[in-house]
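sry for the spam today, last one i promise. C-alpha cells for design, 375 residues
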C-alpha cells in the first residue's frame, strides 16, 4: 500500500483500446448504469428526465457515466419504459445526452442489453411487484434461450432458434454503430443480472442441447458472438466493456472460476478492455451477500485472473464511503469503482468524496458554477 497522500480514487485512469490510444478518465469513479423507467411514451427515446439525471451527475465530477440499460431491439428492453438504441429518434436523443456529459468533462458509456426472458418487466417504481408487464400496459411476448419462465411472475418465453439468435447478434452490432454515431466513448455489454447473455452463460437457465447449450464452450458461444459482432463495428480507438455476474451464488451455477476463464478469453482474443464485476440476479438465493463493498473480493479475484492483460476491472455493489473506495484502489483490488445508489442519493458524490479525501479545492471535480459550494 502506497504512503503517498494523494488520492488514488481521484487520479486519472486510462482504459486501454485496441489501437493503443486509450480513453483517459479524469478520475476512477464510474456511474453504474441504473434504469430510470422514465420513457413515458414507451418508445425508447430519452426524455428531459434523462437529461437532468445524467446532467446533474456529470456536473458532480464522475470520471465516466454509464447510461442505463439500453435495449438493442424493442423486445430486448427490460421494461416498456426503458431506453432503446434501434431507431433514429433514439440515437438523436442519446447524442444530446452525450453532448452534455462531455461538456462537463466526463466520458460517456452506454450499456447495451437484451433482457431475454426478463424483458417486458414491470417498471421498478412505487407499487412494483415484479413479473411481466401486462400486454395492455405495453408488455410483449419475450424470447430467450429456452421456452421456460425465467423467474416467478414472468410469462414463459419463446425459445430462440438459430435465426433468432443471429438476429439478436446483428441487433447488438447495429446498436453499437448507433452508439458510435451518438458520440459514446465506450460500450458496456450487459452480461449480468439474469438478462439474456447471463441466461445463456449459466447452466441454471441454459438447458439447450444445441451448439448454444450444454458444455461451457457452447454456453459461452452467444456472448462471444455478440462481443465479436460489436467489436467489428466499434472503433478500435474506443474501449469495449462487459458487466458480468461473477457468480450465481448457487451450487451448479456460474462461479468466479468459470467467469474468470470467459473474461480472460474475451480480453485476450475478442477485444474486451473493461470488465465490470457484479453478481447474482438470476435466481433468488440466501447465499448472496450484501453490505458495503460486498463485491470487492470478486473484483480482486477477477483482477488477479486478468493480471497478464491490460484490461481494467471495476466493481459495483454497496460502495458509498469515499474511504472504502480509496482503500479498494490503493490495495489494488480493482482499478475503478462503479457507484450506483449513492449517486442517486447524491449526484455530487465525487466532489464530496474528493473533499473528504483531502483533494485540494482547486482540483475537486465539479462544475465551475458549483465551485462556491466549498466542498
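last one done:
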Amino acid at each position: 500500500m502506497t504512503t503517498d497522500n494523494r488520492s488514488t480514487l481521484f487520479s486519472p485512469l486510462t482504459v486501454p483500446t485496441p489501437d493503443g490510444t486509450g480513453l483517459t478518465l479524469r478520475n476512477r469513479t464510474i456511474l453504474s448504469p441504473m434504469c430510470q423507467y422514465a420513457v413515458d411514451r414507451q418508445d425508447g427515446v430519452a426524455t428531459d428526465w434523462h437529461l437532468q439525471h445524467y446532467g446533474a451527475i456529470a456536473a458532480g465530477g464522475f470520471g465516466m457515466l454509464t447510461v442505463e440499460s439500453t435495449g438493442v431491439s424493442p423486445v430486448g428492453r427490460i421494461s416498456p419504459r426503458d431506453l432503446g438504441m434501434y431507431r433514429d429518434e433514439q440515437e438523436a436523443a442519446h447524442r444530446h445526452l452525450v453532448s452534455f456529459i462531455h461538456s462537463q468533462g466526463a466520458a460517456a458509456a452506454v450499456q447495451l442489453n437484451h433482457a431475454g426472458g426478463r424483458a417486458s418487466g414491470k417498471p421498478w417504481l412505487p407499487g412494483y411487484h415484479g413479473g411481466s408487464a401486462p400486454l395492455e400496459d405495453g408488455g410483449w411476448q419475450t424470447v430467450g434461450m429456452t421456452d421456460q419462465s425465467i423467474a416467478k411472475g414472468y410469462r414463459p418465453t419463446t425459445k430462440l432458434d438459430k435465426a433468432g439468435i443471429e438476429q439478436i447478434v446483428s441487433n447488438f452490432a447495429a446498436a453499437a454503430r448507433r452508439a458510435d454515431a451518438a458520440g459514446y466513448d465506450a460500450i458496456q455489454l450487459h452480461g449480468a443480472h439474469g438478462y439474456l447473455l447471463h441466461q445463456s452463460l449459466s447452466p441454471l437457465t441454459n438447458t439447450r442441447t444445441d451448439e448454444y447449450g450444454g458444455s461451457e464452450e457452447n454456453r459461452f458461444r452467444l456472448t462471444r458472438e455478440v462481443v465479436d459482432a460489436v467489436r467489428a463495428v466499434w472503433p478500435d480507438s474506443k474501449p469495449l466493456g462487459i458487466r458480468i455476474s461473477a457468480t450465481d451464488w448457487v451450487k451448479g451455477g456460474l462461479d468466479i472460476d468459470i467467469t474468470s476463464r470467459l473474461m480472460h478469453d474475451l480480453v485476450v482474443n475478442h477485444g474486451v478492455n473493461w470488465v465490470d464485476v457484479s453478481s447474482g440476479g438470476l435466481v433468488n438465493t440466501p447465499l448472496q451477500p450484501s453490505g458495503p463493498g460486498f463485491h470487492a473480493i470478486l473484483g480482486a479475484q477477477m483482477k488477479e485472473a486478468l493480471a497478464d492483460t491490460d484490461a481494467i476491472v471495476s466493481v459495483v455493489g454497496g460502495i458509498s464511503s469515499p474511504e472504502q473506495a480509496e482503500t479498494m484502489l490503493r490495495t489494488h483490488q480493482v482499478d475503478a469503482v462503479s457507484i450506483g445508489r449513492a449517486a442517486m442519493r447524491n449526484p455530487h458524490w465525487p466532489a464530496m468524496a474528493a473533499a473528504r479525501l483531502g483533494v485540494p479545492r482547486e482540483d475537486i471535480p465539479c462544475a465551475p458554477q458549483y465551485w462556491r459550494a466549498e466542498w
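The mean pLDDT is 96. ok im logging off now
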